[in-house]
Write a structure and sequence with these properties.
Elements (H helix, E strand, L loop, with lengths): L2 H10 L5 H17 L4 H8 L3 H10 L5 H12 L5 H12 L4 H19 L2 H12 L4 E5 L4 H14 L3 E3 L5 H7 L8 E5 L6 H12 L3 E6 L12 E4 L12 H17 L1 H18 L15
Parallel strand pairs: 1-2, 1-3, 3-4, 4-5
Helix pairs in contact: 3-4, 8-12, 9-12
Keywords: DNA-binding, Transcription, Transcription regulation
Pfam family, one: HTH_6
InterPro entries: Homeodomain-like_sf (IPR009057), HTH_RpiR (IPR000281), RpiR-like (IPR047640), RpiR-like_SIS (IPR035472), SIS_dom (IPR001347), SIS_dom_sf (IPR046348), WH-like_DNA-bd_sf (IPR036388)
Length: 294
């Protein structure tokens, strides 16, 4: 458990009310569960009111329960096993509609990302990418889907883009052997963080390349080697990794760079449209075709 949070609770233990001591004891013993409970649910679990839970959070130095909850979530971000994530997901949804619950969780994740992402870092990262000689993109495990999406569109905007294959550490370094101060590497990783991605980012930093990290927290191991840290929330307590916010951030990055290079991009896309039409890449849809009877 986070030593700072533990210290805050222990230092205040003697001054707590009876209800606050119940909360403190439960947090110390079950912080992995409390991290995903609402204040009302925590209160009901230990037998106190929601307002007592909120006062407890401020008593130990947080601005409110959400900040206390975030502190607990931060310290377990990289520790939840797949089985634990399934249990947390089931508990969070309870008897609620699953589809609505997932939509609402994703909406909240995007909202929090909007509040936390640095606009300055975002636009500086876009400038660095736009002026780079070569762009390396790396994402391991489930983050590979995000890296592949970003790589697809970057290939349309730039000539020299490499999606680094992360099969083994040796292969990663072989693909990045020529990286230097003229290049940019974009590393993407979310809990549980990929060790390969962290090593690759550190390697790029030592070679003098500009490093853009797309991750979820300043405590992420990708944050330290990053010149530009782009934060996007992910739902660490879901059975699957919720990447709606990182994908939205990546969309914004692509749009920003495309608009910076609008004249070049228009020519590329016009050439692509001509090629797609000539070779029948896309199925044409007859908009005037009547709808089938249902």
């Amino acid at each position: 458990m986070n030593n700072l949070l533990t210290a805050r609770i222990q230092n205040k233990m003697t001054s707590f009310s009876k209800g606050q001591r119940l909360i403190a004891k439960y947090i110390l013993e079950h912080y992995d569960k409390v991290a995903f409970m609402t204040a009302a649910r925590l209160g009901a679990t230990v037998g106190v009111s929601e307002s007592t839970v909120v006062r407890f959070a401020t008593e130990i130095g947080y601005t409110g329960y959400p900040e206390l909850q975030q502190a607990m979530q931060e310290m377990i971000r990289n520790k939840l096993t797949s089985v634990q994530r399934m249990e947390v997901t089931a508990n969070r949804i309870g008897d609620n509609d699953i589809l609505d619950s997932v939509f609402n969780q994703d909406i909240d994740i995007i909202r929090r990302t909007m509040e936390e992402t640095s606009h300055e870092n975002f636009y500086k990262a876009a400038d660095a990418i736009s002026s780079a000689r070569k762009i390396y993109i790396l994402g391991a495990r489930s983050s590979l889907a995000l890296a592949t999406f970003l790589s697809y569109y970057m290939h349309l905007l730039f000539e020299n883009v490499l999606l680094v294959q992360s099969t083994s550490e040796g292969e990663i370094f072989e693909q990045m052997i020529r990286i230097d101060e003229n290049d940019v590497v974009i590393g993407i990783s979310f809990p549980r963080y990929s060790r390969k991605a962290v090593k690759a980012m550190n390697f790029a930093r030592k070679r003098g390349a500009k490093v853009v990290a797309i991750t979820d927290s300043t405590l992420s191991p990708l944050a330290e080697p990053a010149d530009y840290l782009l934060l996007a929330r992910s739902d660490i307590a879901s059975i699957v990794d919720s990447y709606c916010a990182p994908l939205s951030l990546i969309n914004a990055l692509i749009v920003t760079i495309a608009l910076k290079k609008s004249n070049e991009v228009k020519k590329v896309f016009q050439n692509l449209e001509d090629i797609w039409d000539e070779y029948g890449v896309y199925e044409k849809v007859d908009e005037h075709k009547s709808e089938p009877n249902v």
